[in-house]
Amino acid sequence: MNWYVSVLKNYVGFQGRARREEYWMFVLVNFGVTVVLSLLQALFGIDQVLTSIYGLAVFLPTLAVGARRLHDTGRSGWWLLLNLIPLVGTIILIVFLVQDSQFGNNRYGANPKEKF
């Protein structure tokens, strides 16, 4: 949960690097919240209001942590645009996001793994 809150606090921080753990814990909690909100909507017969509001609220933090994760692998955050290519782009982006951090410093900053 700490990773999720730290990403939300740094919601417009597109600079720097994000560890795999930070990115994937954010994605996991984000997915869990979305599932719970969807169940509540189905239970109470509400249209997609809750998930839409939540999606808008976490849109910028999701982009920011994705860009920082790509920075950690030595790639530009612009690679997130691969999501616009159906299926193939998403698969390539997932491969980039699961790769290990680039060793040492890179042009985006110090390796966050070396801080711990």
UniProtKB/TrEMBL annotation:
InterPro entries: DUF805. It comes from the Bacteria. Keywords: Membrane, Transmembrane, Transmembrane helix. The chain crosses the membrane at residues 23-43, 49-66, 78-98. Pfam families: DUF805. This is DUF805 domain-containing protein.
